[in-house]
Amino acid sequence: MIDKNNIPKHVAIIMDGNGRWAKEKGRIRSAGHREGINRLSEIVDAAIELGVGVLTFFAFSTENWNRPKKEVDTLMRYLDNFLEKQFKELQKKNIRLIAIGRGDPIPKYLQKKIEKAEEKTRNNSALTVVLALNYGSRQEIVDAAKKFALAVKNEETGVEDLDVENFSRYFYTVGLPDPDLLIRTSQEMRLSNFLLWQLSYAELYFPKVYWPDFKREDFYEAIEEFQKRKRRFGRVDAN
């Protein structure tokens, strides 16, 4: 049973296993990506039902540009179709959409569509869905350091003011709580350059199922597992 009083505020998901799912079924890799896109709505609905505040999907990494051009183009097209089809659903379900990561070289038409969706949904409050696109955590940390250095140069802050809280304000995720739970499907046990700073105290969960087969029930199991963990944040357990 899920305790509604102990729901993670922020769940981050690495949607892994699309290609292997397709290969095992004798299908092309793009079929796995297409099926993976179809999983988003079900998991979003489950998060709203449970009262999760933020749901972050690792949709496309900075390293994914190294994949074959045909596969990258297909992923961009699937993302475009998803935004086109889901925009009304975002509004209907009171969902806010945010994208984090570097803009270029994401196609300009797609950047504009994302910006429009962010603007139109910015006041929605039932759930914040974060798409990590062209995202890499090391790059994010470098970008944050550059922003801080520029602020020092412009005399907007001083080196002596740098601490964990202040530095966090220069990250893509500014204003969002750090993830309480990370789910990576397909039982791969790596962070893959994803939210390295923000995941410092997150609980990690690695189900065997590939992302295209990750259903509502699997999401519930992840939450139940989270609720079994004792989160001490460096402190000694009083019990």
Outline the fold blueprint:
Blueprint: E1 10-14, H1 18-24, H2 29-50, E2 54-61, H3 69-92, E3 95-100, H4 108-121, E4 127-135, H5 137-153, H6 164-168, E5 181-184, E6 203-205, H7 216-228
Parallel strand pairs: 1-2, 1-5, 2-4, 3-4, 5-6
* Radius of gyration, CA atoms, in whole angstroms: 18 Å
Strand order of the largest sheet: 3-4-2-1-5-6
List segments where confidence is low: pLDDT < 50 over at least 5 consecutive residues.
none
Helix content: 40-55%
Tell me, briefly, the overall form.
globular
Structural class: alpha/beta
Order of helices and strands: EHHEHEHEHHEEH
> What is the CATH top level name?
Alpha Beta
Determine the N-to-C terminus distance.
23 Å
CATH level 4 superfamily:
Decaprenyl diphosphate synthase-like
What is the makeup of the main sheet? Answer: 6 strands, parallel
Helical run tally = 7
What is the average per-residue confidence, as pLDDT, rounded to a whole number? 94
Number of domains: 1
Per the CATH scheme, the topology name is Undecaprenyl pyrophosphate synthetase
Please report which band the strand proportion falls in: under 5%, 5-15%, 15-25%, 25-35%, 35-45% or over 45%: 5-15%
Quantity of strands, as a count: 6
